[in-house]
Design brief:
By secondary structure, this protein is an all-alpha fold. It folds into two domains: 11-50; 53-95. Helices cover 78% and strands 0% of the residues. The protein is elongated, with a radius of gyration of 37 Å.
Length: 110
């Protein structure tokens, strides 16, 4: 593509305008990134200073662990009775939920 002298006279002033607008656009993008980084830094600092809440599930795990530790300290006689009782309950619950027709035959296709 050939550029005529008349076109050059129009292009040169426009090139400086385009360069200025491009520079402003670049500065604006950089400023936005810096603001975004500063905002995330504030959020990170705030999270480090705040106490984080634990979920209910985590609380239940701690509670269950404490109960197990307490049972260990009670003695093995109480534990054996409780294990027998829980084993009997599990057997009764398992027997009531088990389907008598399922699990006795296996279908194999070839």
């Amino acid at each position: 593509m050939n550029i005529r002298p008349m076109d050059m006279q129009v292009l040169i002033p426009r090139a400086t305008d385009v360069a200025k607008s491009q520079q402003l656009n670049d500065q604006q993008n950089m400023l936005q990134q810096q603001q975004f980084a500063a905002e995330w830094q504030k959020i990170a600092d705030n999270r480090q200073t705040q106490v984080q809440n634990s979920s209910k599930a985590e609380g239940e795990k701690v509670k269950a662990n404490e109960e197990r530790e307490a049972k260990k300290h009670q003695g093995e006689a109480g534990d054996e009775r409780e294990e027998r009782h829980s084993a009997e309950e599990n057997a009764v619950n398992h027997a009531s939920t088990e389907d008598p027709l399922r699990g006795h035959k296996i279908d194999i296709k070839m």
